Amino acid sequence: MKPRILCLFPAALGNTTYSKITAVLEEGEWFFLGFKSDVLPGEPAWEDFHTPAQILEKFRPDILIFRSVTAIYEVGLNVMAHHRGIPTVWLAHGDMPASAVAQRLHQRWDINSESKSLSKWLRIFLYLGVGLPKKYSIKILKYLWAVKNYGNNPTAVAYRTSFDLTGCDLYLAQNKSGAESIQKFYHYPSEKIKIVGDPQLERIPTASETEKNKILYIETDFNSLPGGNNCTAEDYKLVYDKFVYSIRNIEYPVLIRCHPRTKPEIRAIYPAENIYSGDLANLWSSLVCIGGCRSTLLGIALALDIPVITIESQLPDFPAVESQAEGLYYPLEKYPAGIQLSDLKRPSEINRVQWEAYSKLRGAGISPKQEIRKYLLYLLNSSKQHG
User: What is the DSSP letter of 206?
Assistant: First the structure.
């Protein structure tokens, strides 16, 4: 019988990390669940279910794959799956350096959480607790208190929450840095953390196959970041313009990779002929540099030996994050007169300890796809033995 795998993100979110996820276990039967705003018409969505148990009864999964276990609905499903003996996996989709994570411990992200009424909190408590033993009640109350005080800040909430609620059977990190952060701030035991590399780097060019003559700008879903609530198309245009005009000698075309959640009105602000929707691996050998948010880009920069121009502090009220990779990131705000691409240093020119932490598996002949497959099969087989 085919193993049934439920991914807690929509198939329509075709970013490079997840767009080929089914190839990891081709013999499995794959299901995807997202919000109505992300899924295709007629496909099941989170809003169609009133309790986590209903989701499990609908899909009857043998394993769950999360891209985060931080939102209330994700926590509820994670706990219910564990209660029913269904293994869960958190597959990292970006970098998580410890210095950046530590800064979040005391930040409130969503002030609207304070305005929830007592009846709203009661409904959330029942959503999380229905069908679970009473022993979970105190843990759920502590979790809700953390949510009330820190909003949607995943680090601050997880740091103050029982691992039973937010922890998975395995956390598949992209690098050593992310593994250390999840252990320290999310309470994951070391044996539940495995480093698998970055699925975006399944194929890395070993030599320059073509002339390096392109710049890549990867758009970020700013609304999901602290201080980025309710960003308009004008905000997105401001960030993109600052990125483009910060480069003094635009002798190379700037390709734009839109975020999977990009709305049509935002997509329309970019030059249509510059939007790239293909496999990013096809660009790796021709990139001069790359721009976007640090969590997405650091591993790519190290693997491809190209610099990053970070855009992280260019949103209203969005706090600048000090880079761990001194000399590798070039924040736009530091170069009001523009950046000469010829002045940007490549990672290989910078002598620093972080190299090993971020590039542990990259370039070592290890396939992220095979690593992820290995651990999924391990959990499936372990589940059968204990079932």
Answer: S
Model pTM score:
0.83
* Nearest by Cα to 305 from 333, 276, 334, 325: 325
CB burial readout 151-188, b (16+ within 10 A) else e: bbbbbbbbbbbbebbbbbbbbbbbbbbbbbbbbebbbb
**What is the longest distance spanned by two Cα atoms in the chain?**
64
Identify the residue whose tokens are 């209660």. Answer: 83
How far apart (Å, rounded) are the C-alpha atoms in residues 315 and 219?
13
Helix, strand, coil content of the chain in percent (nearest 5) = 45, 10, 45
Which spans in the chain are helix H?
A: 16-19, 52-59, 72-83, 98-102, 118-129, 137-150, 154-159, 163-166, 176-185, 233-245, 264-267, 294-304, 354-358, 368-386
pLDDT digits (tens, 9 = 90+) for 52-90: 999 999 999 999 999 889 888 899 999 999 999 999 999
Is residue 95 within 8 Å of 178, Cβ to Cβ? yes
The CA-atom distances, in angstroms, between 138 and each of 98, 126, 128, 129, 153 are 29, 13, 12, 10, 21
Q: Is pLDDT at 39 greater than 80 in this prediction?
A: no
Whole-Å CA distances, 305 to 203, 277, 288, 301, 349: 14, 23, 9, 5, 9
Rg (C-alpha) for the chain, rounded Å, is 21
Instruction: Taking residues 34-38, report their average pLDDT.
Output: 80
Using an 8 Å Cβ cutoff, are 327 and 253 in contact? no
Q: Which residue has the higher pLDDT, 353 or 191?
A: 191
338-to-130, 136, 322, 334 alpha-carbon distances in Å:
56, 55, 20, 9
Closest CA to 215 of 85, 333, 106, 308: 308
pLDDT in tens, 206-256: 665 567 888 999 888 877 665 566 788 888 888 888 888 777 666 788 899
Residue 91 main-chain phi, psi, to 5 deg = -95, 110
* Residues 249-262: b if buried by 16+ CB within 10 A, e if exposed: eeebebbbbbbbbb
